[in-house]
Design a protein that fits this description.
about 150 residues, two-stranded antiparallel sheet, 7 helices
Length: about 150
Amino acid sequence: MHAAVDVNCRPLAFVLTPGQASDTRQFQPVLEKVRVRGLLGRPATRPNAVAADKAYSSKANRAYLRRRGIAAVIPEKKDQQANRKKKGSKGGRPVSYDTERYKQRNTVERCFQRVKIWRGLATRYDKSPESYEAGLCLRGSIIWLKSLTPAT
């Protein structure tokens, strides 16, 4: 399960893949599914910044974010740093990212915890991908509804 989450731990998009699927390749499909509708106008599809862990660090993902005008808050992997340094001056500049913004990346993990409160989503035994994804959408809707209703 790959997800895009806002700063309030509310899910924006889910992409379901087999367990052995590469994280890096799911980065763009997840961001393509993000649609946030406001009161007026078209839905927003471009966040200000994207905080992701090292699994999503790649030149392709950074170029995709740069093309869309989105700030990348993704640290560089150790092997990528070593390869860049090995190339010397041709390796390019080191990747910079906002460490304070990166501290908010745990919102994704907290969202996963909220989603997996449902036992049916925590354990994925004997479920078709369609029914599991439907459960994810339902749980995401409930999380959004709970965040929009005032607590009594």
